[in-house]
Design brief:
- With 258 residues, this protein is of the alpha/beta class.
- It has one domain: 3-Layer(aba) Sandwich (Rossmann fold), CATH 3.40.50.
- Helix content is 42%, strand content 15%.
- The chain is globular, with a radius of gyration of 18 Å.
- The chain binds nicotinamide-adenine-dinucleotide.
- The site of nicotinamide-adenine-dinucleotide has 29 residues, from helix 1 and helix 4.
- One of its GO terms (molecular function) is oxidoreductase activity.
Length: 258
C-alpha cells in the first residue's frame, strides 16, 4: 500500500516550484491532491500533469489572502474527496525592498499571504479534520529567513518568523485532536522565487562566489525542489507520528553557520 493511499492533501501554491514537486510526490504516493492557487492557467497545467500520475487531482482557484476564498476552497476540497488528511501551507510571495521605503500596502500583502493565509487555511482545515474525526497533519513551508535575517526583505523574514510561531502554537492546541503541525525551512532552492527583480539570484557572482565558492552553504550548492518535497511528505506521513511543532531546515547546512 502506498504511503498516502486514499488520503486527501491540499497544497496551497501547488502549481509551481516546491508546491508542485510536493503535489507530484503526494500523487505518486497515492493521494488525492487539491491544488489551491491564484493562476488558473498554471493550475490547469499542473492538474493535467498530475492526472498522468493518478489520484483525481483538483485545482481550486484561490487567493489565500482572502478568507472567503479559503473557505470556498476547503468546502470544494471536502465536496470532491469527503475529507482532508493533509494541508501544506506553501503559498508565499517575495520581493526585495529597503525597509525605510517599504509601503504599508506591500507589507500587508506579504502578511496577508504568508501569515493570515496560513492561519485561515489551518483553522478551516483543522475544523474540517475534527468534524470528520481525521487525525491529520499540517505542514507549513517556512524559510530559514524565519529565524535568520536577510537584507532587503524584512516583510518576508518577519512573516516567516510569525509562521514558525503559528506552527508551534497550532501544534500545541491541535495535538489533543490528533492533528500534527510541523514545518520545513528551505534555504536556497532553485524555483521561480529565485528570480528576484528579473535576476536569477543563483546565477549571480555573489551567489557563486560567496555561497558556493566560499562554502557559506556547507554543501556548496542550491537545493532541488524534490529535496524539500521529500521532507514535507515525511512530516505529513505516519513515519513522523511523534514529531509535533518543529520546523526542519532543508538548506544544505546554511543556517548552521554565520
Ligand atoms: N525557492 C526558495 O529558495 C525558497 C526558500 C525558502 C522558502 N521558500 C518557500 O517555499 C514556498 C514555495 O516557494 P517556491 O520557491 O516554490 O516559489 P513559487 O513562486 O514557485 O511558489 C509560490 C506559489 O505560491 C503562489 N501564491 C502566492 N501568493 C498566493 C496567494 N495569495 N494565493 C494563492 N497562491 C499564492 C504562487 O502563485 C506560486 O504558485 C514558499 O513558501 C517560499 O517562501 C522558498
Amino acid at each position: 500500500m502506498k504511503r498516502f493511499e486514499d488520503r486527501t492533501v491540499i497544497v496551497t501554491g501547488g502549481a509551481t516550484g516546491i508546491g508542485f514537486a510536493t503535489a507530484k510526490l503526494f500523487a505518486a504516493e497515492g493521494a488525492r491532491v487539491v491544488i489551491a492557487g491564484r493562476n488558473a492557467a498554471n493550475g490547469a497545467q499542473a492538474v493535467e500533469r498530475l492526472k498522468k500520475i493518478g489520484g483525481r487531482p483538483l485545482f481550486v482557484r484561490t487567493d489565500i489572502s482572502n478568507e472567503d476564498d479559503v473557505r470556498r476552497m476547503i468546502d470544494a476540497a471536502v465536496a470532491h474527496t469527503g475529507r482532508i488528511d493533509v494541508l501544506v501551507n506553501n503559498a508565499a510571495m517575495f520581493y526585495e525592498s529597503d525597509f525605510l521605503n517599504e509601503t504599508t500596502e506591500r507589507w500587508r500583502a506579504v502578511f496577508d499571504t504568508i501569515v493570515n493565509g496560513s492561519y485561515w487555511c489551518s483553522k478551516y482545515v483543522a475544523n474540517a479534520m475534527i468534524a470528520s474525526s481525521t487525525h491529520g497533519a499540517i505542514v507549513n513551508v517556512s524559510s530559514i529567513n524565519g529565524y535568520r535575517a536577510l537584507n532587503q526583505s524584512s516583510h518576508y523574514n518577519a512573516a516567516k518568523g510569525a509562521l514558525d510561531q503559528l506552527t508551534r502554537c497550532t501544534a500545541l492546541e491541535l495535538a489533543m485532536h490528533g492533528i500534527r503541525v510541523n514545518g520545513v525551512a528551505p534555504g536556497f532552492i532553485e524555483t521561480e522565487l529565485s528570480v528576484v527583480g528579473g535576476v536569477n539570484e543563483l546565477e549571480t557572482d555573489w551567489f557563486k562566489n560567496y555561497y558556493v565558492g566560499m562554502r557559506k552553504i556547507p554543501q556548496a550548492r542550491a537545493g532541488h525542489v524534490d529535496e524539500v518535497a521529500e521532507v514535507i511528505a515525511f512530516l505529513a506521513s505516519d513515519a513522523a507520528s511523534y514529531i509535533q511543532g518543529t520546523t526542519i531546515p532543508v538548506d544544505g547546512g546554511l543556517s548552521t553557520t554565520f
